[in-house]
């Protein structure tokens, strides 16, 4: 029999559960974006190859670290972090694709993915603020800053 350990960090059990659920969705979006970005890194071609290959590598490397931070925060709140493609596919708003887009379409899709992650992170904030969960608020702020900047940098390649 596994002994249950009480968690008393100043956030109620229902709030911890709701926040962990929001973070699980953020994890799903982030991992899906990681996979898409890594795929594009491998498969980009054309005149912008070197620029995009390096940019995509920087972005997927950062995402690899981020998914770990998000999962660890879910665990700190006392919940299990999802860790399967099936679970991520059920939660993410980022579409999986089976085609091979050109470089410009890759950029457009990554902009959309970056913006999706920002919206997901932003959607969790009201509950996090109400629960006075400063560590999660800090994590969400950092994630939004990274993804907003990435979206801007990608958009700039499209002239916008």
Automatic annotation (TrEMBL):
Gene3D superfamilies listed in its UniProt record: 1.20.1260.10
Pfam family name, one: Ferritin
Domain Ferritin/DPS, first and last residues per copy: 23-159
PROSITE patterns named in the record: DPS_1, DPS_2
Keywords: DNA-binding
This protein's record includes keyword DNA damage: no
A Gene Ontology molecular function term of the record: DNA binding
Domain of life: Bacteria
InterPro entries: DPS_DNA-bd (IPR002177), DPS_DNA-bd_CS (IPR023188), Ferritin-like (IPR012347), Ferritin-like_SF (IPR009078), Ferritin_DPS_dom (IPR008331)
Family per record: Belongs to the Dps family.
Entry protein name: DNA-binding ferritin-like protein (Oxidative damage protectant)
